[in-house]
Amino acid sequence: MLHHPKVKGPSIGLLGFSKGGDLCLSMASFLKGITATVVINGCVANTIAPLHYRDMIIPQLVSDTGKIKKTKSGFFNFMDTWSNPLEEYNHQSLIPLEKAQGPFLFIVGMDDQSWKSEFYAQIASERLQAHGKERPQIICYPGTGHSINPPYFPLSRVSVHAVLGEAIVYGGEPKAHSKAQVDAWQQIQTFFHKHLNGKKSVKHSKM
Length: 207
Description:
Rossmann fold; 19% strand
């Protein structure tokens, strides 16, 4: 990435959503040159499949498909399928984010019906501080679901999951979710400008 003509350098910022969030946490923990990471409704543990890096394997967070719930509309809710990352049998799946070089910003939708995103962000915060690291920035948006996109994208309350192949409930209320997308976009820009460009104040995009 640092050799890509569109990458300014000398460092890299990462932004990940959902499963992409825990992938970004892993990249920030194990790779050099990453100085800012944004996670949108992601987990603090490795999920869905084992993560292989060099001679190390991080197992996936234990899940129980028997706990899948079905809404009256026939959509699936996976919220309760994910076990607690703090349980002893899940400790190996926790991502050692305390090894990361730079700060974190966690964007949390408080009506996320796919992940326990606020709980995961708090675990991350407590883990970082327990290792003497800076407390991460956590921004929680009431009435906001799982799929937080750039401003003016329509709310996606239900979508067919690319991996699972089923219609999954994401949550979110139209007005609150739309406002959250506008604010989150500005918060993300400010975070990256500060930690990648060293600018404390920026001219926000009008998008």
